[in-house]
Design goal:
The complex is a heterodimer of chains A (about 240) and B (about 290).
Chain A: E1 10-19, E2 22-32, E3 37-42, H1 48-56, E4 63-68, E5 74-77, H2 91-96, H3 105-109, H4 115-124, H5 140-153, E6 158-162, H6 170-187, E7 190-195, E8 207-212, E9 215-220, H7 221-224, H8 227-234
Helix pairs in contact in A: 4-5
Chain B: H1 2-8, H2 15-37, H3 41-63, H4 72-101, H5 106-126, H6 132-140, H7 148-167, H8 169-177, H9 179-184, H10 189-227, H11 234-259, H12 263-284
Helix pairs in contact in B: 2-7, 2-10, 2-11, 3-4, 3-5, 3-10, 4-10, 7-10, 8-10, 10-11, 10-12, 11-12
Chain lengths: ~240, ~290
């Protein structure tokens, strides 16, 4: 199913996505409108992250078409477990990486990066209080706030989050979802969020894409979360 | 105390050996930090041996009559450096390409490479009996015979490598820590990796020419491991590891000179003692917030 728009920020058209030369998702049709909040949903290993990686340019689109309106600025929040705790990096140092798109010689020689932007992003994400602590010493929810601050420091149009709520307690999940909702409104962001489950975040999504058995079914959340669709996805009567 | 003061004098007989070792002790940990953080410690074992094989290959060519560089002993030394750099950088590029493809078992690859490099070194020396003495001295890490101009050139190159590693620390850290984010921000990850590998190749090659493969491996890995528990950031990790490497080199030289012991093994033992003390102290001293 296609979510059509005259000028989407990102459009997949009959795309094949995967690694090497083996597509794991085929006939992907997806159009991301400015200001939308997408949930990319499906079981573990279904290929949700593959969509994100293709969109971000980390892996090539194997077939079909992937087009962008202009050159979109992405802010990427990876799965927090992917970041090696061996690196002796403070939360502020990690958040500063968001500003590394434009490191000039003077910026390199200064002790800190664009400190004002970084501090503001940390504050906006409620991470200013533990900015000087080592990232590996923080809780899951705190790490996630720092990684969102890092993505914001890149001054993105599109915020892309990969399983941001995994391994985090319910209360912290609620707080992070409220943070995302507030940031979206304050900064006029388009958000794509990968999740392997659907609970509290469902209310935030304006659109959803179900990824299952090599296919992607996408559309407005009113349609994607209808009981008929959910029965189809979960292969059970709801 | 008088021995210590004698060692610091410019006319000290083993001036080149002392300061060559100390400079390698300062610079190799700056590079080794990335071996440790990228969890490629075994590269630190294998690459110095590959470098030694490159040197043995260069000596073998000379022994077989292929004299590409004029200048007698100095020319031989220059050709040896070229052999070390070509072997080391070439190997790093092949290893990096295999890492990127994610093919096979990394540890297995490095283990096989280490064995091959040792075997090749011995075979190259066997095919060139005249180079055996020089090669043996090199494997022990003896640089007493180096000329004044070569010594200063070596110091200049090490200084340039240290400046480059510190100047581009943010880029090297960024592409080592989160490649995906770096790509997303439009950074040329491959170019930064290649620059880092070139610096690694030069540091390892010159390190092996100066202090031998054993000590080079020691400097690459042990000081960063000793510094890691105390580091509050990448800059402090690099500087602390570098200081530990330089101090181990100086202390090792002093002990080796005063007790008439071989330099390389003494330096490695001291670096390991520093690592053990650092780890023990970390267990006792509480981490500040």
């Amino acid at each position: 199913m296609t979510t059509a728009s005259p000028s989407p920020l990102i459009r997949f058209k009959n795309a094949s996505l995967g690694y090497g030369s083996s597509p794991i998702l085929t006939k992907v049709d997806l159009a991301v409108e400015p200001g939308s909040f997408w949930g990319v949903l499906g079981h573990n290993g279904s290929g949700k992250t593959t969509i994100l990686k293709t969109m971000l340019g980390l892996i090539p689109c194997l077939g079909g078409e992937l087009s962008f309106r202009g050159t979109p600025r992405f802010g990427y929040v990876p799965q927090k477990e992917r970041l090696d705790p061996l690196f002796p990096l403070s939360a502020r140092a990690v958040a500063e990486m968001g500003t590394y798109r434009k490191l000039d010689l003077l910026g390199r020689l200064r002790r800190a990066g664009d400190g004002g932007v970084v501090d503001r992003c940390l504050a906006d994400c409620g991470a200013a209080g533990f900015a000087d602590k080592r990232l590996s010493d923080l809780s899951g929810g705190q790490k996630q706030r720092v990684l969102i601050a890092r993505a914001l420091a890149a001054e993105p149009e599109i915020l892309v989050l990969d399983e941001p709520l995994a391994g985090i307690d319910i209360t912290t999940q609620q707080a992070l979802l409220k943070l995302l909702k507030d940031l979206k409104e304050q900064r006029d962001l388009t958000i794509l969020m990968v999740s392997h489950r659907v609970s509290a975040e469902r209310g935030l999504f304006t659109h959803a894409a179900w990824v299952d058995e090599g296919r992607v079914t996408a559309g407005p959340s009113s349609e994607m979360f209808s009981s008929g669709r959910l029965s189809e996805v979960f292969r059970t009567e709801l | 105390m008088s021995v210590l003061l004698d060692m610091l004098k410019p006319d000290f007989l083993l001036h080149h050996a002392l300061w060559g070792s100390v400079v390698v002790g300062f610079v190799c940990p700056l590079v080794g930090v990335y071996f440790v953080l990228r969890r490629l410690v075994f590269w630190g074992v294998a690459l110095p041996q590959v470098s030694a094989a490159g040197i043995a290959f260069a000596f073998m060519l000379q022994g077989l009559g292929f004299n590409f560089m004029a200048g007698g002993e100095t020319g031989e030394r220059h050709l040896a450096i070229v052999g070390a750099v070509v072997f080391t950088v070439g190997t790093i590029l092949v290893l990096a390409a295999l890492e990127r493809r994610g093919a096979g078992l990394t540890e297995g690859r490095i283990g096989a490479l280490y064995a091959l490099a040792w075997a090749a070194s011995i075979l190259f020396v066997a095919w060139n009996a005249a180079g055996e003495t020089e090669m043996f001295g090199l494997l022990k890490g003896e640089i007493v015979a180096i000329s004044e101009s070569d010594f200063h050139l070596m110091l200049d190159i090490f200084a340039a490598l240290a400046v480059a590693v510190l100047l581009f620390q943010r880029e090297f850290t960024f592409v080592s820590y989160d490649r995906d984010m770096a790509v997303t921000l439009g950074r040329n990850v491959l170019a930064w990796d290649l620059l880092l590998y070139l610096i690694v190749g030069l540091a390892v090659s010159l390190g092996v020419m100066t202090v031998g493969p054993l000590v080079t491996f020691g400097y690459l890995v042990i000081p960063p491991l000793a510094a890691l528990p105390w580091a509050r950031g990448m800059r402090s990790l690099s500087l602390l590891a570098s200081a530990m490497g330089g101090a181990s080199a100086f202390a090792g030289f002093y002990l080796s000179y005063t007790r008439d012991l071989p330099l390389g093994p003494v330096v490695v033992c001291i670096a390991c003692a520093v690592y053990a003390l650092s780890s023990a102290a970390r267990l006792v001293v509480p981490r500040s917030s």
